[in-house]
Specification:
Chains A, B, C, D: It holds the Pfam family GATase_7. Chains A, B, C, D: In the C-terminal section; belongs to the purine/pyrimidine phosphoribosyltransferase family. The structure is a homotetramer of 474-residue chains. With 474 residues, the first copy, chain A, is an alpha+beta fold. In chain A, 31% of the residues lie in helices and 25% in strands. Chain A folds into two domains: 231 residues, Glutamine Phosphoribosylpyrophosphate, subunit 1, domain 1, CATH 3.60.20; 201 residues, Rossmann fold. In chain A, the strands form six sheets. In chain A, strands 3-2-4-1-10-9-11 form a seven-stranded antiparallel β-sheet. In chain A, a hairpin with a 2-residue loop joins strand 9 and strand 10. Chain A is globular, with a radius of gyration of 23 Å.
């Protein structure tokens, strides 16, 4: 993750992890969340049950800050769910940390952890408040909790289905009770959620990299509209929405997911290298070196370099030790050339024609800064190649893109952007190139991706009021 | 830097930074030290003078932990020196944090910061204590302070020269007084130390990456046996030892220095790529993918891949969020496959013949673990290529190699090591290959490198007693 | 407050503070809470409104730990309520920290702070959960929030009255909205709550000592069953329960309240001195010195000494620096005489007949320890005088007495207790003596006090199930 | 201790504790230092030896903050010394925390802890620096370390004596080596230092209250000019200065020492009560209530009240929870009457003639504020009685009196002071009254006290330069 105070970029979202029936459930959830840390650094939490009662701990901070040996020790039980959070909707408050734990007359204790964003959360919340509901947090997850609590359905399974049918948006959802683990994914499968096996224990994770870390084996992805119930009777799959083909968020491949994760069987690093190769096919250029903006563009840059036969070099270096408390240089010092966390390597780029690969352009300010950095370090030409199409539309599914007014590609042609960032040339990957490079199975008209931020075709209804709220607040 | 609790590896050492006559001296030192953070994460400190008195702050922790805005604000002055420390000699105590500040009747206030290690520190300390000296720290730097304080020389310059002539070992040294900045390097130039210019202000740094960060221009390296005096009369160069050709520590190129630093005009990333290319020339292999152990071996791996025409892939992934407080998995969980910070990417290596590039083998335990990880992820063959010669001898100049008994190459042939680590093939780079690949100017018999850890030919005398102490204690 | 880990004692409860229409509302609440710190050290919180929206901060810790200058600075507004908490019901969780802030469709944002304990909270909670309510905390205050939220009443005032009429128990309640401050007290006035004036601003506080600290003038106590509404139209008093004569918790006078507070116009220190004087009248004794168990028994001890004409001495000394992180001596060291925070002063008690005044006996273990301490320090006789009647019944109104089985006076006669604690004589103050000494105005049959822990006559109904729960869990 | 940021007052100094030959030496030192916490809250430290090597830990903060269970656990050994520090000479730096540990060729490892202040420290330091000594701290203790280190004496005992003979000033000194514990007191016995026995183990402490806490028995005071050596051969007493009668600092009785400590067999609380009684004898007054400024004047106030037959009341209350991080009210709020930590109790003083007892007047600002507070609370008359003579001269022995210009009694007559502080009457105790009330044995012309701050008769020579330095800097 690049530092949001410096670079304009897409904000990552959340990660969930769950495990059922393992004596080391809490420790494994700790390592699993740690592997998902890149999906959210704001808060972390684990809830666990030993079958008779819950224990949980949530706090602001990284997984290894939130959980000390003492705290882990105090969390006993064999079924656990965990969450790492980067706030999109909802302020950065401890009360928004997940899992959300509550008690309800019908179902007893419940813990919820979700990754994603509802499109109709505010509308649902207003309706619930009119009926006397008391909300403590500003997170979407609490809306789901209230819907479940208010259901008159005879079983938890039915109550959850009833609740999910009222939701519009993207979500991967884990629900823990003393007796069961429920797992669901939104009807379009916008966020990844995988199922694995560790010995006899079922494991669920936003990304498969967590399976590798805990030594679990990948079984399959949770399906769009699927609700899994795991309890004493084993694993049962049911549906709360008609089968639809999956439209997974493209940016999971492009930027969010860890390179060692697979999404629906496609490795992310490999997909990124393909994006780089495809990008070279679509927009070749004569140059001396290829460099990527670390760390997220490294794979695409290597792919581009290999396809082009141009050496891949570390033309840009990131300081690994920039922490959250780093003191920013004053404007005065910044103007004098003090850099913070990214610097160009003079010896590598001096006198060279440089291809700079980045994964996306949001506002354009970072790109302009990096191009400038490369020129100051002596690059004779800077050719920018972006391994995704231009981002023109806001995301309502949990990605903190800027609002449309701030998206440079929403208001400018590629040529205008090239001029603004000061590059010698600039090319974005085409949507078709993206689809082909990733290589997801395509069914009928469905390309297997959500491309809404590129083409504005949202897979769900978009609540107009909510949409304005999102646009307004960002 | 890889995590010492997990991997056996060479420990990095210290970094120094100094700037003379700049209104933002302290802020720039902060950013400079931040760029040198990879050279030492144990403690950090800055001493500054406004010409009339000193202020300083030192504490355990990373630069951005040690210095808060309030603390930086309180450090006023235009000439400053700073230090980041990884303990080699001397325990991990706050009292060992540098710069060391003391007061002396002859020269008033002094602050010292050094990078390196003296070979005769204990002997000098004993002699000084017999004369009634009181030592507060266990660091070598205090020995230098006492030698300066006890000198009867008429000027600080003479006193420093007198002191330096009693030292044997490796050091880059900065001395701050209210009136002057003194800079020296040991007679063999074992540790890098560069001089730059930022506007009118002279800047000194262990590595040139700090110049890029603060916007300074590189002038030249400080010479072996050179003592620079910077005061009201400007910059004066003198010598305290006869001119000798430099024997810079090879591991600065191989592993320690940041890839964007230059040492004597040679870029470190470029040197590492050459090491990789040379390694392929010396030990070609048929394979499907090349991967490097992140992060230090990435450059060499790319060089190898380019020379070989084999794709470079991210076959090994490191979790960036492993902090110092991370909870280690129990032996039990480790055996079940829980990984902590490095994991192999199954989709990348499965069914492939893998070349794994690493920069060095110290005890061999890490290499064995990584080879095993790759095999478990499905690699059909694992060929290990090391971009340095076998480490057979202890370093006495500030690198925390293990003692000789623990160095696997000191007791085993490459073939035996191959068997121990379980690789299909293993080749180390030859010393000649190292020298050629880096490409330092060679004068007479001197190759420009210290290769003592490979060939046991130490450039300085080695105090037998000290040597035993080092061997014994490690 | 004495340290609960060492001494068995009554646990203090909570404190509330509110101020309406003052530019320094937050700072004044900070100082007010600070003056109420003795009523709760577990967590502290402030919610404030500027008329358009809320800001709040709550955290575990003392007032001066929870609020830094930065945090106070961020809390802008002219009407604020604050809370300090010592958990009685509800676990020690951050989520239980008050004020409780929530949003509701009918009334917008609300913040609640309460001091006290409901007797029928669990029953209400169950009913609410059956109706689909989602509870986040284990505190009684959330029950009140839900009752208000679910009311169909046309105004907040009516909704609050409706809610309060469903509550049984003890409470002083502050409710903040963007437009108004509502203040209520339970129908028996079990917990103190006073109203004051600071310039034009109304101030409310659990104790009047906070008025002195902020420079406010005392106006009157909030009446049992009174609901005050303060908004744009000024101050309006209404009733939600018929007028009843107040039955204030006796232990507020005996032990809880700060000596400089007045409760219904009676100063607490003065009341305690009277208790001491009355105790001498009821149980005179020949002795050489009178000493009190610091700090809570000092006033009674001085009263006793003055009445008896026996010198008052510091025969017992408390270490002021015992913090929450103090390391307890091992059993082994304790047996060897290592004391932690209370020690007897040998020179004062040696060879003397000592009267030791304490405010109450709960389990008896502390008294035994102190008597023993005095004897070891050389006291020839130890006469214990307790400035309250024997505590025989559990409190359901927010005081954490032990459960009845653990109350020594519930199971033993005074003579048996004397033997257990090893005193030469022991007398408790009589209930009549208590009533006379405090000197509250008495109306009809009502003595003005709640004496339930002494005589078991609870002023409210006690829910049998809840009562069992309380007994069971403690 | 009152808060120095609010009240002008005498600053307390340091405390030392040592124990030889006890398996729980470190834990006992921890509890001992905790009992001495009132003598210094800035830093704390413990050094311990197991006979073969030292371990030590020092840090800024209170004893219970500095020492965690882990840290205590790591300090193994049976002979320990400890220190709590309030800085007088020397800035508030961690490096000044004691015990000071150093290594010396002749005597091996040494740890020093001192309570007191040298009058000739700067002069000695200059001389030592001229000889090449390197000073790390600004504390007097390091001067002693250097003198010992430079001695050519054949034994540690002789070296220490030689060093002590060069010192002028007040000190209680503990020296720890691997083989021995050395204990010394300055030739005038200005600071208290007592010896006790805990089983077979000798214990030393600045105050006897620490003996009570650890269960040790008081043996005797260390004598002026005495050097005790405790080693394998047992306890040996020797002298480094001729026997002189003790001149203990009067303020130990008046203000510094804990009421439960004895100094030379006289209990401090009892002495303070006598001061109060004597004060009434010397300056009787008709009044309704007597109150003391908490906490240090409580004993004197009770003594005064008993002698006068006037009731003692809590007319002034201190908030116990004022910590070091408390946010001070702005000037604006202070003017509006916001109090921080001391408040008058209206119900107690309203309409009453009040005698207010305080232990001393330094600058007079606090007294004025308290008199004013009492009047605002309704006192009709305020008679101030001070249980010590007027402080007219600076202390050079470790008490941070203001410099003479700031001492109100140095520049004003009692009548002028009365007017300044706004009292109806004001009387100071006479020096004769002080001497009689405390009741120390008097020999010849020596009254047994140092009264220098009252009469300017310093028991030691005062270095004129140092004296100016002290006057100047304060």
């Amino acid at each position: 993750m690049r530092d949001e105070s410096v670079f304009d970029e897409l904000k990552e979202e959340c990660g969930v992890f769950g495990i059922l029936g393992h004596p080391d459930a809490v420790q494994l959830t700790y390592y699993g969340l740690h592997a998902l840390q890149h999906r959210g650094q704001e808060s972390a939490g684990i809830a666990v049950t030993d079958g008779t009662g819950f224990r949980y701990h949530r706090s602001m901070g990284l997984v290894n800050e939130v959980f000390t040996p003492d705290i882990l020790e105090g969390l006993k039980g064999s079924t656990a769910i965990g969450h790492v959070r980067y706030s999109t909707t909802g302020e950065s408050l401890l009360t928004n940390a997940q899992p959300l734990v509550f008690h309800n007359a019908v179902v007893g204790q419940l813990a919820l952890a979700t990754n994603g964003n509802l499109v109709n959360a505010n509308r649902l919340k207003e309706e619930l408040e009119e009926q006397g509901a008391v909300f403590h947090t500003t997170s979407d997850t609490e809306v789901i909790a209230h819907l479940i609590a208010r259901s008159d359905a005879p079983s938890l399974e039915e109550a959850v289905k009833e609740a999910l049918n009222q939701l519009t948006g993207a979500y991967a959802l884990l629900i823990l009770t003393n007796d069961a683990l429920l797992v669901a994914q939104d009807p379009h499968g916008l966020r990844p959620l995988s199922m694995g096996l560790l010995g006899d224990a079922y494991v669920f994770s936003s990304e498969t990299c967590a399976f590798d870390v805990v030594g679990a084996e990948y079984l399959r992805g949770v399906q769009p509209g699927e609700l899994l119930i795991l309890d004493r009777d084993g694993l049962r799959s049911s549906r709360f929405a008609p089968p639809a083909s999956r439209a997974v968020c493209s940016f999971e491949y492009i930027y969010f997911a860890r390179p060692d994760s697979d999404i629906d069987g496609i490795n992310v690093h490999t997909a990124r290298k393909s994006l780089g190769r495809k990008l070279y096919e679509e927009a070749p250029v004569e140059a001396d070196v290829v460099t990527g903006v670390p760390d997220s563009s490294t794979s695409a840059a290597i792919g581009f370099a290999e396809a082009a036969g141009i050496p891949y070099e570390l033309g840009l270096i990131k300081n690994r030790y920039v922490g959250r408390t780093f003191i920013q240089p004053s404007q005065h010092l910044r103007e004098q050339g003090v850099k913070m966390k990214l610097s160009a390597v003079r010896k590598v780029v001096e006198g060279k024609r440089v291809v700079m690969i980045d994964d996306s352009i949001v506002r354009g300010t970072t790109s302009r800064r990096i191009v400038n950095m490369l020129r100051e370090a002596g690059a004779t030409e800077v050719h920018v190649r972006i391994s995704s199409p231009p981002v023109k539309y806001s995301c309502f599914y949990g990605i903190d893109t800027a609002n449309r007014k701030q998206l440079i590609a929403s208001n400018h042609s590629p040529e205008e952007i090239r001029e603004i960032i000061g590059a010698d040339s600039l090319t974005f990957l085409s949507p078709e190139g993206l689809i082909q490079a990733v290589g997801r199975p395509q069914e009928n008209a469905n390309c297997g991706h959500c491309l809404a931020c590129f083409d504005g075709k949202y897979p769900t209804e978009i609540d107009e009021e909510e949409s304005l709220a999102v646009e307004g607040k960002r």
